[in-house]
Amino acid sequence: MRWITSVEHVTGYKLRLGFDDGSVKLVDLARHLDGEVFEPLKDLRLFKTAHLNPDLDTVVWDNGADMAPEFLYEIGVEEREPAIVAENPGKYAAKRKK
After folding, report:
1. What is the pLDDT of residues 34-65, one digit of tens each?
2. I need a surface site. Which of 13, 52, 81, 89 has the fewest CB within 10 A?
3. Is 22 left (phi over 0), alpha (psi -120 to 50) or beta?
4. CA 32 to chain centre
């Protein structure tokens, strides 16, 4: 069983979620906001109220909606550290030629 350790709204219906195994996943919930409890979350003002409920170990919203952490883990896309890129690669190429 997975649980969520951090919640951050990114943009639109996307959340960055930290999980107990140390992974960080980007979750796009745009296609998953159906039904009586989740339909109101299509209002971005309400969607942005997403936060961690430490008693449930998952994300919850101000209207009482919550989602199973296992589901969020399954649909999430793992984020990786961005590659470090030299600002001026030509400078380093010139040094290699010497």
Report:
1. 999 999 999 999 999 999 999 999 999 999 99
2. 81
3. left
4. 14
